[in-house]
Specification:
alpha+beta, nine-stranded mixed beta sheet, 5 helices, 33% helix, 31% strand, elongated
Length: 240
């Protein structure tokens, strides 16, 4: 149940015996800007190469999604814990950072675009108690509706979902086409073996006992390094 204070206009969420403040985060991105943030993330280092060009966007939508915000006593200070207040496949939402100065009181006019909370506060508090944070450690609780653009896209026959938090532009996704580590490991191993072999050439020249063995071996090592280093960089860029 949502109530509005007749004196100050603050919106609060009433959950049985608990009364907590109800906040919202103001969006700073429109849909094209959120789409651009998604494209930058797709072109970044976490995802497969050329995902931004090869992915097919299926749909996009906007909503205010509810999160429970708990301020938990921790030693001499506090720590903030976020937990989705409604069902979602993007559990990474709990990793968001919500600066207190960016929160504004929830406007009932946002209700048509807001997802209703379905996780009771009591349930969340029980979860926290099981994790060691009892009721006496909860200094503050609030319900926060954050602006999210939800994008669905397809890549190589698979469907994926990513959300863009419309205040900061941060992209969150649980499952996405991630870069394979095998090519990087292969390049790293080949590079390491190459330079180990080159480093052994001067040693071999010294062991040979010839007058110019060490100097020739060193020259071969330097020349080989000048060739191998650019090749390693090119290989790393190719698999990126």
């Amino acid at each position: 149940m949502f109530l509005t204070c007749p004196y100050c206009g603050s919106a609060v969420f009433l959950d049985t015996s608990k009364v907590v403040f109800h906040w919202a985060l103001t969006p700073t991105l429109d849909e094209p800007e959120a789409g651009a943030a998604l494209s930058r993330w797709m072109a970044g280092n976490e995802t497969v190469k050329d995902l931004d060009r090869k992915a097919e966007r299926a749909s996009s939508s906007f909503s205010y999604f509810p999160l429970w915000l708990l301020k938990i006593k921790d030693g001499g200070g506090h720590r903030i814990h976020l937990e989705p207040a409604a069902a979602t496949s993007i559990t990474a939402l709990r990793d968001l950072a919500l600066p207190p100065g960016d929160l504004v009181r929830y406007d009932p006019a946002l209700e048509s675009a807001s997802v209703a909370p379905s996780v009771p506060l009591e349930t969340l508090l029980r979860w926290q108690a099981q994790l060691g944070a009892g009721p006496d450690q909860i200094a503050e609780a609030a319900l926060v509706h954050i602006p999210l653009y939800t994008f669905k896209y397809r890549y190589q026959g698979q469907s994926y979902t990513a959300v863009v938090e419309a205040a900061s532009g941060r992209v969150l996704a649980n499952l996405f086409p991630a870069k394979e580590e095998a090519p990087y490991r292969t390049v790293a191993l080949a590079t390491a073996l190459t330079f180990v072999c080159l480093a052994s050439v001067p040693v071999a020249g010294l062991i040979a006992g010839t007058p110019d063995g060490l100097s020739v071996g060193t020259a071969v090592c330097i020349a080989g390094g000048l060739v191998a280093a650019p090749a390693a960089f090119i290989a790393a860029a190719w698999v990126a």
